[in-house]
């Protein structure tokens, strides 16, 4: 009952351990706070000055009492220490049969990769009952991988790998947060961990394999560093792509070409075939590097780019 009131759902193998320790610590704090407050008031009333000329009685201390109030808190503190250490070791050591997944934080999204290479953004599908080891890193600033329902929280640092592990014990969707302030969109950097039955996970994986391994078009665009030249600013060394699709393009040899699918594909795989007026033939070919699927995804992406109104 208390759990439903005060805790997120417990959906991992360590959640109960963490909760019990937490409840113990809160319980000890509440117990001693109430005890001290009660004694404070009780003694103030019980031993108040009763007449204006009353004189206090000297006291000589009590060794037994002093030992008791030293040893009992010591035992409680050491108990909390060893209990906490036990839970800490459990959540920081992935079991030997854990399957490794990768997570990359980036302003402001999570990129995940499954053991078979399937990728997804912000959502992470996992099978229930399987220990999962997350290897985490960041592309820019410090983020923090946080799934309250699993009681899992780990800093995600640029230039370093950190690990966290969990074993989901319930199916369902559980919130995933970034728990380290990382800039403007920090609050929206999150998603869901979707826990599926193993066979459902296999089905999901089979369906997702094709498209998500490819990544989104924006990802492909970045992966091949297209944006280092095709940019909207004045330093762009290559034609602007927004609003390009469907237009007639003037070429250096005086002719024109229509920017349709074939033109864009040709420009990716054979960039020197048609050089746009005003630009130099500096674009490298992506033949042999970029798959057809990726190129097609890019063409669809360019097609959907709207021209920005300020130009
Ligand atoms: Cu990433 Cu906050």
N-to-C SSE string, H for helix and E for strand: HHHEEEEEEEEEEHHEEHH
The biggest sheet, with number of strands, parallel, antiparallel or mixed sense and barrel status, is: 5 strands, mixed
Structural class: alpha+beta
Overall mean pLDDT score?
A: 86
In percent, how helical is the residue content? 25-40%
Bound molecules: dinuclear copper ion
The CATH H-level homologous superfamily of the largest domain: Cupredoxins -  blue copper proteins
Strand content: 15-25%
| Structural Rg | 31 Å
Q: Ranges with pLDDT <50 over ≥5 residues?
A: none
What CATH first level of the largest domain would be assigned? Mainly Beta
Distance between the termini: 60 Å
Number of H- or I-type helical stretches: 7
CATH architecture of the largest domain: Sandwich
Strands of the widest sheet, in order across it, are 3-2-1-5-8
Topology, number of strands: 12
The gross shape turns out to be elongated
Could you explain the architecture of this structure?
- The protein is of the alpha+beta class and 311 residues long.
- The protein has three domains: 2-42 and 60-92, Orthogonal Bundle (Helix Hairpins); 99-212, Cupredoxins -  blue copper proteins (Immunoglobulin-like); 217-304, Orthogonal Bundle (Cytochrome Bc1 Complex, Chain D, domain 2), CATH 1.10.760.
- Helix content is 36%, strand content 21%.
- A hairpin with a 4-residue loop joins strand 6 and strand 7.
- The radius of gyration is 31 Å and the shape is elongated.
- The two termini are 60 Å apart.
- The mean pLDDT is 86.
């Amino acid at each position: 009952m208390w759990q439903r009131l005060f805790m997120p759902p417990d959906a991992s193998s360590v959640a109960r351990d963490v909760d019990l320790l937490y409840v113990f610590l809160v319980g000890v704090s509440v117990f001693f706070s109430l005890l001290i407050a009660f004694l404070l008031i009780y003694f103030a009333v019980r031993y108040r000055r009763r007449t204006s000329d009353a004189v206090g009685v000297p006291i000589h201390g009590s060794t037994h009492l002093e030992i008791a109030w030293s040893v009992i808190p010591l035992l409680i503190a050491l108990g909390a220490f060893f209990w906490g250490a036990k839970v800490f070791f459990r959540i920081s050591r992935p079991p030997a049969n854990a399957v490794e997944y990768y997570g990359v934080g980036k302003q402001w999204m999570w990129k995940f990769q499954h053991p078979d290479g399937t990728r997804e953004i912000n959502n992470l599908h996992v099978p229930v009952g399987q220990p999962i080891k997350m290897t985490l890193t960041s592309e820019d600033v410090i983020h923090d991988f946080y799934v309250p329902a699993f009681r899992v929280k780990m800093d995600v640092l640029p230039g370093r790998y950190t690990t966290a592990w969990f074993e989901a014990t319930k199916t369902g969707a559980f919130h995933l947060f970034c728990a380290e302030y990382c800039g403007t969109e920090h609050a929206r950097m999150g998603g869901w961990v979707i826990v599926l039955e193993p066979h459902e996970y296999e089905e999901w994986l089979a369906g997702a394999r094709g498209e998500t391994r490819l990544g989104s078009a924006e990802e492909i665009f970045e992966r091949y560093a297209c944006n280092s030249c095709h940019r909207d600013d004045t330093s762009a060394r290559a034609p602007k792509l927004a609003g390009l699709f469907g237009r007639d393009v003037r070429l250096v040899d005086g002719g024109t070409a229509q920017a349709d699918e074939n033109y864009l594909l040709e420009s990716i795989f054979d960039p020197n075939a048609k050089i746009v007026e005003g630009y130099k033939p500096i674009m490298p070919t992506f033949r042999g590097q970029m798959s057809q699927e990726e190129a097609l995804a890019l063409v669809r992406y360019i097609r959907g780019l709207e021209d920005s109104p300020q130009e």
